[in-house]
Design goal:
Helix content is 72%, strand content 0%. The model has no long low-confidence stretch (mean pLDDT 84). It is mostly helical. The radius of gyration is 20 Å and the shape is elongated.
């Protein structure tokens, strides 16, 4: 008696997702560095915001494109992202009430780009989990 073993065909969805998220993330990083540099002197109350955008956008592109992205650099950018998130989100009420002396375009861009970065990380995590589940499928 012969037992037939079948295996589900692996989906290319995680690879496509990774590629799309990568392209979006690179565009976002370039834009963050440009906006941060363009508005460097336009946020009197929170001068950290344009600096955060420049360092996060430009820094990740410079260090990670050299293929020498070490753990120390990754940890630095992780905490830099958390610090930027805290500053941006904690300033939201002052911005909404008009009490924040910061260029509207700069602040809203920083706010939205930070949310988009969180969303991209979430999508990457979901794609990774899906890839792991597919690679660990046990033959039926």
């Amino acid at each position: 008696m012969m037992v037939e073993v079948t295996r589900r065909q692996r989906s290319s969805c995680p690879a496509v997702t990774l590629c799309c998220v990568g392209v979006i993330f690179i565009i976002l990083l370039i834009t963050e560095a440009g906006v941060g540099g363009s508005y460097i002197n336009n946020c009197e109350d929170v001068p950290f915001i344009p600096i955060y955008l420049m360092v996060f956008g430009g820094g990740i592109l410079v260090f990670c494109c050299r293929k020498e992205c070490s753990v120390i650099i990754a940890v630095f950018f992780f905490f830099w992202f958390i610090a930027g998130s805290v500053v941006i989100f904690s300033s939201f009420n002052n911005f909404k009430e008009g009490k924040l002396h910061c260029d509207k375009t700069l602040y809203l861009f920083a706010f939205v780009s930070t949310i988009v970065t969180y969303a991209l990380v979430f999508v990457l995590c979901c794609a990774y989990v899906q890839e792991e589940e597919e690679s660990n499928d046990v033959p039926v």
